[in-house]
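INTERNAL AUDIT FORM
Audit reference: QA-55
Scope: verify that the stored structure record matches its stored sequence.
Auditor: D.O.
Record contents follow.
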Amino acid sequence: MKIGIAQLSARAGDFSRTGERIIAYSEQAARQGVELLIFPLSTLVAMCPVPYVDQEGLLIDLSDMLSSLVDKLACPCLLPLASLSAYESVEEIFLIANGEVMPLRLTNLTRSMGGDVMAAMANGVELLSGETSIPTFDMEGIKFALVMTPDKLDELASLDYDINAIIYFSSQTYAANDSNSVLAAGLPDNRYTQDVRDTKSWLIALGSLGGSDDAVCTGGSFVLAPDGQAVAIAPSFEEALLVAEIGPQSEGLKQDVPKPVPYDRSAFCWQALSLALKDFVVAQGMQDVVLTLDGTLSSAVLATLASDALGPMHVHALLATPLEGTPALRSGGRGESLARSRSAAQRVLAMRQLAANLHINLHERNPRLVQASAVSLQDSAGVDERLGVLAAERDVIAAEAHQLARQLHALLLSSCDKTWLALEADGLSAAADVLPLGDLYRSDVLEMARTRNASSPVFSDVSLALCDLPELLESDIFNDVPIDFEDQVRQLDLILSMYIEWERTPSDIQRSQGMSALIEAAVAAFHAHALARSNAGVVLRASTRSLTDARRPFDLAWHDRLDRKELLPGNKELSILAQELLASFEASLQDVEANNPFVDALSDLLNGAQISVFDPEKQAEQNADFSFGSVDISKKPENSRQNMANLMDYMKGFGLVNPDNADGHIVADAEGHMGFGGFAGNGFSPFSEN
């Protein structure tokens, strides 16, 4: 069977234009003999929630558009619909063929309910629940399964589904720290090669393309044969019509399949952010952007990124190098011993040279405002007063940039990165329309700059200087921080990423990294600047967890601390949380059959007793009846053995029961995350992004 993948970039909800492009792709596919043409998840609507008040009207217009396609498509087509609700995971896939529009998910539900959907609804069945079974359909002797999330891929691998091919409509947007999100670009090191081997099925993966709200999708659709070999690969960042022959006897289309280029995280991130920025600006009906060149590396990177994305004539830079001596004054002179300092004149020269290299529009500041700030700094007495002048100067520069953006009818960009937003954010400086670098740490920005300069040199100096030093590192209390300046920034970013992306506690970070004072100060600064971060503009997503995702309630008085003891098996000093867990656990197991070995073992563990792990095989040989609540797990020895092994593996994964690590030492798992010994044995941790 010949299938096609239409990897196209479509603006969500632009049904008229999208309908025309769907028809054009179907005609092109039909000329190549395609029997089923498949479209990515973002074709009809964005992969982001739509307000409830807009959902009814949007669905009505969507229905009209689908109906209009019935008689115009040149070949059968699959069109997925992502969830419109932020509270319920709803998915549907429409098969348009033979003059009909068939909702495959609803069709599968109807079949599983014996055809009586209304009776099932009367009995409480939720038709729009995301927990329903995976929809399947048959065509040309091939049974297809349709999934949209990694969890559903896992379900196909773990359960016995009789299928020949999986169509995976990827719902993941780009994340620099997750190679699964880039699809073909991450082959063969990401999960998908193993998925096809586990399921022994063809895998047809569709990557959406283009900006989606504050995120971006990078394409990279592909087809893998059951043995893990790539049959067809679409490029990232480009539209494409991919055609492949699949089926039990097929070896794929006889064509030269391009081998995936080794995944270069920094280079790929640059292209992804360029695409995200371009699509965001276009979606706002704009053409031009305004940014500030202040002598920092982040501002130079943003100017280059904007030029690559929009073209140099659409980029306007306000030359705003801070007053002479700013970094040294801010650090009390200590920073000059850590990093090379650039004078104001040197920074102005570097920024002018960068603007000339990029051919972007350079705008000068109001000279009267510059002179007024210089006089104020000269007349100020004492360090605190002078620091106040510098803060006021930053606000004046921000106001000038806002005024320039209004005059040019342009979007205002900010060069603030994730490190600055996490530790130093202030309201006015962070306020902008878009923060393209706001989900990347400073060390990531540095690596991107070096990668970009390797392809086409535009930066005269790709290194961090004193003006790039986070204020937190300028304190003299961090004596255990590495001496090398760039290593300091990388260490600080590692601590932030462990806390934000990996969701590690401060105590866990301290046990693996040391540097207690730096960790405590970084976590405190992160929460202290939460309100200022909320005044920032749209941050383009480039990670699995943004700063907004990590925000605590503004009124939460409790703060974590570094001196917490580990909760280990046999530890008599259980924390309050563990005691509450024990009480809740006991209360919920009143109806569990007595002498249940799993329950007895867990109860002993939570009570702090030293226990020996029972042998599930020996227990199974006794033909025991294992029950959990009112559910009879199994009476068969082979099933009992597997069920008990699974339960023990689950507990091992959380470090509660671990015969290989009775002392509960902290070790690294397969992804480098630190955790109880059980994590390493199972190859995962609760902090795993995978």
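Auditor finding: record pair retrieved intact. Residues 156 and 379 are 71 Å apart (CA to CA).
Action required: none
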